[in-house]
């Protein structure tokens, strides 16, 4: 993987009602795996170990969705509940409060919570991918400097999108967040907000980037996504190490499945994201075709590289520069590469 530079490559305690909503209503939907029991190596029946898995609802977390839909954790002897979240900060609140055991989310939120002493450890890599700057074709926005004075769609402060805007995109255009208006909204609403003029531009990840692109909006610049990783709560990793190891095997199986069964998994993901047919300029795309196109911007891998670790540190350093962190963070203090052999 190519090394990414600074210019080319998050929170307080939430109330219990907000957290409950994240897990059961607006932010999350849960689904227990269909395998409550698993056979041990000796062939006897044993009660499956339970695990709660959270993920941010983006293609970067596809391994979690594939594991859910294909019961890949059940095949490891785990009874899994899955919870989806609209953004990383909400997910981290759930993980830090003990409502989740493991989670798929981005590094910017991880370094923010890690710098505040949150009790979790990064235990696996997930992907490398792309986000993009969306706008109308006739907006006049072609490069970062053109964003001056514009309204830009953003997720919550401390999210991966927020990191990309304030630490990568605006500095490249010699701008700061005082030169633009950042409008917080969920990614799913950004496309319509640009279309109706509420926003001039937005930074979005997949599959929403492809949805908007196929319907006529323009991606004027791609940005390296701020890296998805798997985190485990320290209590879970300590008290249920055997279940954590089984989870890692399921995670690996899910990534291998994605890399080997792209067309099949595109159909699975299309259903999971409720992707509609999209009428483009040249053809009507089936849901699976839409998802297959969105998947092209992501490469999934569970194996660490030296460049991955350097990039994670770069994210931490940049986050401190833009004051998302109150103090510098050595990312090696929140990463344990020994879980993935």
Automatic annotation (TrEMBL):
InterPro entries found in the cross-reference section: Solute-binding_3/MltF_N
Keywords tagged on the record: Signal
PROSITE patterns assigned: PROKAR_LIPOPROTEIN (PS51257)
Pfam families in alphabetical order: NMT1_2
Superkingdom classification of source: Bacteria
Solute-binding protein family 3/N-terminal domain location: 50-265
SUPFAM superfamilies attached to this UniProt entry: Periplasmic binding protein-like II (SSF53850)
Signal peptide: 1-25
Compartments, record wording: Periplasm
Chain ranges passing through the membrane: none
Keyword Phosphoprotein assigned: no
Family under the similarity heading: Belongs to the bacterial solute-binding protein SsuA/TauA family.
Protein name as catalogued: ABC transporter substrate-binding protein
Organism (species): Paenibacillus chibensis
Lineage: Bacteria, Bacillati, Bacillota, Bacilli, Bacillales
């Amino acid at each position: 993987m190519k090394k990414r530079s600074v210019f080319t490559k998050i929170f307080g305690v939430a109330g219990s009602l907000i957290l409950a909503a994240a897990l059961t209503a607006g932010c999350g939907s849960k689904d227990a795996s269909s395998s409550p029991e698993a056979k041990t190596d000796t062939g006897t029946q044993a009660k499956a170990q339970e695990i709660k898995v959270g993920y941010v609802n983006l293609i970067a977390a596809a391994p979690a969705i594939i594991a859910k839909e294909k019961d890949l954790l059940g095949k490891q002897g785990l009874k899994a509940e899955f919870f989806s979240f609209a953004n990383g900060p909400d997910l981290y609140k759930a993980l830090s409060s003990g409502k989740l055991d493991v989670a798929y989310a981005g590094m910017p939120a991880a370094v923010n919570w890690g710098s505040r002493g949150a009790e979790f450890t990064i235990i696996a890599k997930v992907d490398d991918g792309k986000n993009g700057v969306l706008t109308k074709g006739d907006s006049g926005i072609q490069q970062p400097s053109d964003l001056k004075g514009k309204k830009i769609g953003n997720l919550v402060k401390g999210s991966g999108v927020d990191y990309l805007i304030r630490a990568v995109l605006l500095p490249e255009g010699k701008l700061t967040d005082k030169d633009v208006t950042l409008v917080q909204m969920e990614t799913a609403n950004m496309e319509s907000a640009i279309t109706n003029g509420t926003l001039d531009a937005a930074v979005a990840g997949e599959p929403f980037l492809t949805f908007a692109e196929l319907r006529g909006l323009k991606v004027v610049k791609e940005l390296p996504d701020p890296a998805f990783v798997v985190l485990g709560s320290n209590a879970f990793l300590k008290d249920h190490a055997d279940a954590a190891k089984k989870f890692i095997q399921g995670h690996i199986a899910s990534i291998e499945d994605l890399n080997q069964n792209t067309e099949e998994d595109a159909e699975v993901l299309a259903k999971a994201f409720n992707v509609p047919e999209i009428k483009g300029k040249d053809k009507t795309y089936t849901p699976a075709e839409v998802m297959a196109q969105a998947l092209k911007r992501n490469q999934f891998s569970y194996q660490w590289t030296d460049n991955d670790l350097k990039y994670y540190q770069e994210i931490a350093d940049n986050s401190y520069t833009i004051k998302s962190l109150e103090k510098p963070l050595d990312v090696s203090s929140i990463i344990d590469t020994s879980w993935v052999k």
